[in-house]
TrEMBL record:
Signal peptide positions on this chain: none
Pfam families: ketoacyl-synt (PF00109), Ketoacyl-synt_C (PF02801)
SMART domains tied to this protein: PKS_KS
Keyword Lipid biosynthesis in record: yes
Name of the molecule in the record: 3-oxoacyl-[acyl-carrier-protein] synthase
Family: Belongs to the thiolase-like superfamily. Beta-ketoacyl-ACP synthases family.
Keywords tagged on the record: Acyltransferase, Fatty acid biosynthesis, Fatty acid metabolism, Lipid biosynthesis, Lipid metabolism, Transferase
Organism: Tigriopus japonicus
Amino acid sequence: MPMGRRVVVTGLGLVSPLGVGVQSTWQRLLEGQSGVQNLAQSALVASSSVAPEIWASLPSQVAAMVPRGSQAHQFDPDRDFPTHERRMMSTAMKYSLMSAHEALQDAQLTHIKDPVHLTRMGVAVGMAMVDLEYISQNYAALTTGHYKKVGPYFVPRILPNLAPGHISIEYGFQGPNHAVSTACATGSHAIGDAYRFIRNNSADVMVCGGTEACVDPLAIAGFSRARALSTRFNDRPQESSRPFDRDRDGFVIGEGAGILVLEELQHALERGARIYGEVLGYGLSGDAHHITAGPSDGHGAVLAMKAAFKSVGAEQIDHLWHINAHATSTPLGDVAELRAVQTLLADSKNRPFVTANKGNLGHLLGAAGSAESILALKSMQTGIIPRTINVENLDPDIDSQIRIVVGENVDESELNSERPQRLTLKNSFGFGGTNVSLLFGQYTG
């Protein structure tokens, strides 16, 4: 076990392409549903200020979008936010505030008034990309008119640190107020940084995770120019994100937010909080290789995974139950990650289950790591690992010793009491060669 202050997870909140709320997303995930849609048929595009012909010109015609509407599991900004808040927040900020509210309600921490306690509660939330469509609108207004055509909330709506800022202001948290932006590793880095804030006694409670809302023509065009997006399955959107499948051809851009409440163990126990799991390790590394691709052997990923085990000891690799893979459905990235897993397990007889959620969720970019961490914690809590969908033909370059969960969910719920502790590893990697691995364990006292 790690020495010093221990950190546990006591609250979860989620906005995803499978629905608003943790339970809505989890249930649809277990059913093998996909939140990927055709752009032309989506409510998001229908409400966009960008002309339909521009959307139609994009090579990738699929995206994983948060469902919009008036039902409880759908996003409705008119219902969920007063007019002044709608004007001052980007969509990503709204997602993070909604997810934070769910997580804090789950943790029973929404009504803290003691000023001393509030100074020990902080926020660490990040996003990978800002609202490009809003920037484009305001730039067009400036160049075709007067500077007063630029929105009065333009700057606050494009600053990534306003995501944690709004949460801090809403709940009065006066501890660390921290923003992270490390591309697709953002959400996991935010969790890891929050873990360290609690470990080093800078806070007792941290609200942490990632948020993203950049399904817009400029972002899609940019990723298309980088040849990162799927285009082969435009006519079959729900089959387009297919981690580990032989025919995968790129990721599917997505949006959403995943927010967790981390808490110092004694603080949680003293108030009788429910504990989802314990954060046991946080590993970081850099590829030093390429701006958009990792090395084929996954060396940087190996460094991050090994670093995540430093606080508990490398021998605990033998007890690893589950790896929630980054696996974005890119031809190079998925195989490189599994080669890294092989290297991690080279001296162990253990063969943990490996799953990927992006077939269901698409790639939530800055929110991917935190959203998938929530799902990994749900797996650890329930003993159920959701299958990786859309794997019709496993990539032949994947070693047969890797236990990828396909076909059916793994259900070991009846074995929960027989294992001393389940260990789950969550990987996230980002452009620029940034890698992070989070190690979670069941809380066993």
